[in-house]
Known about the structure:
The chain has 299 residues and is α+β, with helices and mostly antiparallel strands. The protein has 2 domains: 5-171, Sandwich (Jelly Rolls); 178-297, Arc Repressor Mutant, subunit A. The protein is 48% helix and 17% strand. It has helices spanning 96-102, 116-129, 136-154, 168-171, 175-196, 204-211, 215-226, 230-248, 254-260, 265-276, 280-298, and strands at residues 5-6, 17-25, 29-31, 38-43, 47-52, 56-61, 64-68, 74-78, 85-92, 111-112. It has a 6-stranded antiparallel β-sheet with strand order 1-2-9-4-7-10, covered by helices on one side. A 4-stranded antiparallel β-sheet has the order 3-8-5-6, with no helix packed on it. Helix 2 packs antiparallel against helix 3 (136-154) and helix 5 (175-196) packs across helix 6 (204-211). The longest helix has 22 residues, at 175-196. It is elongated.
Amino acid sequence: MLAFRLTGQPDSRLPLYLYCVGTQEEKVLHRPDGFPVYQLFLSGGGEGQFRIPGKGTWTMGAGQVFIVEPGIAHEYVPRSKSKGELGYIGIGGASAGSILHSAGLLQNEPYPISGFDIIWSRLADLWHALDQGATEMWNTSTLIYQLILDIAQSKTPSAVDIGSVGPSKEQAVTRSNRESDMGKEALIRAVALMHTHYQDDLLLRHVADAVGYSVQHLNRLFHHHYGVTGHQYMQRLRLQKASDWLNKHPSASVREAAENIGMEVNYFIRMFKREFGETPGKGIKHRHQLQMEKDLTNS
């Protein structure tokens, strides 16, 4: 067993820090007021039930993980007579919630992970890292981040709807609803990446990799929400940015506009005409004429 260890005052510069770590023999755990930080529980053997009032009761077996958010009342009651071991890691920091959420670890029930022994050894590494003195906070912050990544990569496909005996309201949150929410989040991230990197050599497969989806799946999301593929959305975005840029720079050349959005000139001209019904050169000529008329009027 690794005795309970509580860390000191965290460095204010750390977005993620270790609050506590340890293991214990399975026993009743009752926290009516919750815990001040995120709690990551690891079941090293045996079996028990987690109960969160008003949300449900779930069975947690060996090789599973469960994360309880701060301030949430909960209790754990062992069901097995075997001498199992329950590991716990307290994770704090301003970015703790967003990192755990982005990694897909804030689920509503315990879930199994592959390679559990490796994850359990990471817990021991955290415990021993606290012997390193003044630098412990920075070192353990790195270890926690690596642990989160390891767990995210080790989640098994059967991690959904395991052992839940929660009330009907919770059961109504179906797999399809969760997948739909994840799809919307991925689509939002994809659009944000396109708007940020439209000038770069960004391909749709790069965007798909960044949001964790295949190109085919991401295209389905774009078509469902925007009526176009992801490639078409990105191309229209670039062309609109080029048009806006030309409006702001009436003396600019077609080549400059194409380079501004990372397109080859001839391809840019063809796509621009297809999108707006005229070539960018014709638009530039028209803007020059308007500018000359404006100058004559003001002279």
